[in-house]
Amino acid sequence: MLNLRNASIYMIILAALGFLLMIFNMQYIWLFAALAVIYIYLLVMGSVKICAGFYIKVLCHGGTSEKLVALTFDDGPDPDQTPRILEILEKHQVRATFFVIGRKAEDEEDLLRNIFSAGHTIGNHSYSHALFFDLFGRKKMEQDLLRANNVIEKVSANKPVLFRPPFGVTNPIVAKVVKKLGYHAIGWSVKSLDTVLKNPDKIVERINDRLHPGAVILMHDDREMTVKVLEEVILKIKKEGYRFVGVEEMMGFTPRTR
Length: 258
Known about the structure:
alpha/beta, TIM Barrel, 2 domains, six-stranded parallel beta sheet, three-stranded parallel beta sheet, 15% strand, globular
């Protein structure tokens, strides 16, 4: 797999070869410009393509041939939509994973407690979910994640072991902080686009078409559209013979206790 370390090594080797060629013929100077463009492209794509694992190992699906699927929700808890989602999950006896925003959870402690008491897993999705979270310095980013941890731990018997980067963006600083705090970085293999698509049928169809053993589905519990489609999504997935599990069960993790 191509990652930051391997890409840097390849670029250094190619740059050295380019330098040798340039010694004999200056016309090869264009190679340096081309290598610079390619390297910058790799750095950018490695940041925005979370499942590329360019900067950090990110788990985007379970390595299983069993018909298991993990349903995940980002950006909550939301006082209007999350309770409705919890009702649907309880009705169909589905266990899910909620990646919560700390500042929202801080205002909705009772709702966060309901998520946990219903048997769902709670993961860290940062405290601020700031637009430029990935540009934070290491210390500021670490403080942000620890602040979210404190909110989650206040109502939970477990420390968060799962982390989903805001906007699915990674970089070397994110990698260092995640490693230091002992998180497992979680991505997804099925993106529902419930924040973008306006047609409920399109969302259901999209998820169903991309379903596979070990799938991790990304949805959002702060969207009314998610509530509209969730029951049908669950019924169709069950009809295909899949069983819903939490992300930690899918990946084989044990919750980290106090």
